[in-house]
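User: Structure tokens for both sequences below?

Assistant:
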Amino acid sequence: MYRLGKILSFKNDIGLLKKWGISILIFIPWLTRGQTLDTLPKIKKQITNTTYVKLFLKPQKAQIPSKIRFKYRYKTKITAQNAIRLLINELHNQAYLNARLDSVTNVGDTLKAYIFRGEAFKWKSLRKGNLPKKIRNHVGFKEKFYKNKRFLHKSISKLQNKILAYSENNGYPYAQTRLDSINIEGHSVSAKLHYDKGPLMTLDTLRIQGAVKIKRKFLAKYLRLREGDIFSNQKVKNAERLLRQLPYVKVIKSPQTEFRAKKAFVNLFLRKRKANQINLLVGILPNEREPNTIEWTGEFDLLLQNMFGSGKNLTAKWLRPEPQSQTINLSYIHPLLFNSYLDLQTNFNLLREDTSFVNINFGGSLLYNLRNGNKLSVSFNSRSSRVLNNSIFQNITRLPDTLDVSFVSYGIGYQLSQVDDALFPTKGNLIDISMEVGQKSIQQNPELPENFYENIPLNTTQFVYKFNWQHYLPINQKSVVYWRLNAGTMVNDQLLTNELFRLGGINNLRGHNQNVFLASSFAIINLEYRILFEENSYLFFFYDQSWLQQKTINLFDEDIPFGFGMGLNFPTQAGIFNIVYALGQTKELPISFNRSKIHFGFISRF
């Protein structure tokens, strides 16, 4: 692809160049390095004694520009010579195109460099030429920006790169640009831009190299590389990063583009990946109600990804944190709804807390896929909580903080995904931010006296904020530092126990029972140091620190529980096995090996 092209072009200006004694070399400073090297004395053997440099510049009172930083003391004469050579190059870059090294003398430990700096060249004018207005507006080119400004080679290169980048992202990868009609008067330069856009290139069908079960139409829409679209080099570059966010394909190497007959053929080098999962997690916990016995908890996850080769996802989860409690979560994602850039996500959640209450949540989201792979979302959620056992209301003298309640909300969110691998990331960030606002309604229970509700507003506005940031920092090829900041808060003066966040356990605060903590506001930091063996296999040490606040109509409490321990992930032929040993502490329960937690997990991918 033609990038810098021919910066300067001379037409019938030979007499003018001779008159002023300026050659083409002044516009290509790097070609003058040979002169500088020849002028310097050659030293066959490196001398380690300190060498000083003294500069003598012409014309008189000439100085080194302030933008050039030059040291006058060096460890060896060779490094001092190199510094003088680089100084000449920097003078060229700062518009002193006639700068040259006249001579160098060696006096003891000092190099005396005699340099002709000359005058700085300036633009008299740079005209738009035949550069289209649309491109001029995009790159920010205006003729007035160059009047009486220094003739800087870097600024011309930068302008050309912007012009060519715009062209190759809008269907013209073979565009060329150069300066034409150059005129030199003294130290003033005038020229105009010349632009040749070349042939228009359009995308042809994607070429998928590798055995992957994925529909070409879906992939072309997801990557924004549909047949018939104008070729964009930036979209091809983005394709690799977008592909790395898909857990069911492995990128073998970067996409490559072939041009033929005004068509662009993009080749994708992919390999199928086992991304569907069946996860089984078993927890062994001390029975705090019956000493010297244990309790079993469990979790089962089913994840089906890329169903029918079109990126559809189905998630089902069952969780039994306690013998009489359970949670069911269902989620379905339909990507690129109706051939648009919108993803549809639906969710259903059911929580049964022993015999106390049951929570049901149903919601949906529309997520817009941005060009960089991140997502903006709008959501709708309907939550309800019902008390199952009215016997908890017996012999009470005030309104309890477990009541029938409903909450209908609307929300917005933003998701950022910039990791090197969707399944086993070792570098990058994952960020999920959301906000909900809606109407909350408390229903009166006939088992409670009406006067309990006198000072309690039954219909209020409630806000819910959530933030989740995960970061992977590679230390070297065999170790990674991982941290996560997970925070959330509910803003309402009539919060109830049965609507609070539920925290604790293997997913956020290890060393504690699953969902043992209830919080209206929380912040949890998870820190891990991972020693990598191979893909999906690593030993890790962790520390989890939290701040929890529980604020309801009857209670206010704060705690800073933490947990620490170690774990191991290793693959087998049947799947990925993991084991975690953790200890935890709260303000009421100190660290005790009798209350240590051992979590076993198994992930089967197919």
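Moving on to the next sequence.
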Amino acid sequence: MVHKSIKLPLILVLGVLISISWGKLDLHVENVVGKAFVKTPRQNSWRDLRVGTKVREKHTVRTGFETSLDLRFPDASIITLGENTTADFHTLVASAKGTQTKLKIKSGSVAFNIKKLATQKSSYEFESSTATAAIRGTTGAFSARGSRSVAYLHTGMLEMKDNAGKTVNIEQKQVALQTDEGFVVLPLPENLSDLNSLIDEYLSDSTSLPTDSAVNTMITTLAEQTKQKNMLCTMDPSPTELKATRIRLSGNAMPGATVSTDNISTVVPENGKWNLDLAWPLEPAGIKEFAVKMTKGGISLDCGLARFNYVRPIAPLKLNLQTPKNINICQPVSISGNYQGHGAQLVLKVGSRRINLSSATGDFNYPLVLTDKNRDWNLKEVVLELSNGETTVSEVISVSVDRKCRAVNTMAPELSVAFNEKRCIGFLSATKLIDDEADIKIEAGGEEIFSLKAASDVRNHQFALKPGTYDYSFSAVDQARNTTLQRHAQIQCYPDEKFSVSIAGPAVEVLKIPPPPPNHKGGIKRTIQTRILNIPENNPDYIKTVTFKFNNRIIRQYKEKQIRELNFYIDVDLDRGGTNKFAVEVEHKSGRVRTAQKEFVFK
């Protein structure tokens, strides 16, 4: 039986032989210790489970604290739900092809004692969010919580598969740990009480203890209990003092694992013996340490620490700089010379950068250029430093840059533009001008409408658009003649100067018209004059649409380029005995709309 506090969010597929008539399966409560409850699809409340109670398809079972529940199948297979377990019995069916049982474990634990499969298509299936397990006639237990799961077998075989598709097969007397990287298989100890406590601790720490640390603890403990030391990594003793610049570390570890230290690694061969050959340049004398680790799957173990006193001779340092100590940079300038000092390291410090100029011959030559892109063109000096760890000599070189040179000034300004055509304004931003200057110009229809000399980045600078529809171009040229050009086609600006529209005559015009001649069916012809007022320079290009209506019916409409003047004469037929309402609607390109109306009344 599984340890009572173990949880299981797993999928478990179990094969079984059942002798039963075809149809739905009934499970029987064999034993209850503590409190267990069942709920059916038609019930909204839980009811107690007692010995002999039937559990059927679509039922949900829940166990309480310090509770275990044994459920017996018709073929005498037993599954045991541990404490605080909730399971949906999704499918319980028997047919000529076999028996299908599917449980959805929401949380908790399960132990099993499953009879041998009768057919290949018979199955038990336990499902949750983290893994699946297929079992053929076996006894054992599963536990899971969060992203971890543990399975062990007394007899039989089991295949586990996680949601990422990684699989592992275990046999009797084995334990499988699910980790973030897959599965780890270990031997099963004789003392199951200790194992269940270890599993419970492993799962309980799933939200606080790093996975590698938890797996390491599990492996170390099981290795000690099963006395299989080859699961661990050991390292042979290293010397206490070393006068060479190389050492071989060796030891024993799990075959197939990776043993590494200080960016050097090796794969352990089948005999479990590993070697690491380390070498380094001449360095300061003193204590050196190399921590060796072994990794395999989710396992990460310490093999040991190699610690020894390193002794080396001290050589005098000499640094000869051939470059002038005051330079102006337009093109790359050679930092050259030579140095002496066995095992010494030569570094050129350029701001926060450290450039290693060490060489086997002692000669050095480095093309130095300071740029806006590297953000180092404001530096006042660079430092050449030679050190062996105990002694340091250096040379300081004063530097300046010519911002008119493209090798230094490498980045063209970046422009971004936004428009608000209804308000007839634009917003200009220019970036990559830190410690640089640029001439910025805006043209509309080939005519310059704005210019600015920027000495730093410009953010959302507002400018006025030119009234009308024009193609715009934006340019920025920095000190090194790096140029950026943007073009935007057909940008519109039509200021709304509170324009109006009028219809000649009064709003209601009374017409005294004599009766029509006999048999006359036509109306009375009338020409109506309308005018659009307060348009700048009486330019019809400001108008988007003009619509004329008579008795709410559109009788004529002009759009944009069709509008060539601001005075209109519209002919209408007036009805002597009906409604005669005339209206005009004008839409300005700014979006504003104006209307005027007129009504004719006959007396």
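User: Anything stand out in the second?

Assistant: The first helix runs from residue 192 to 204.
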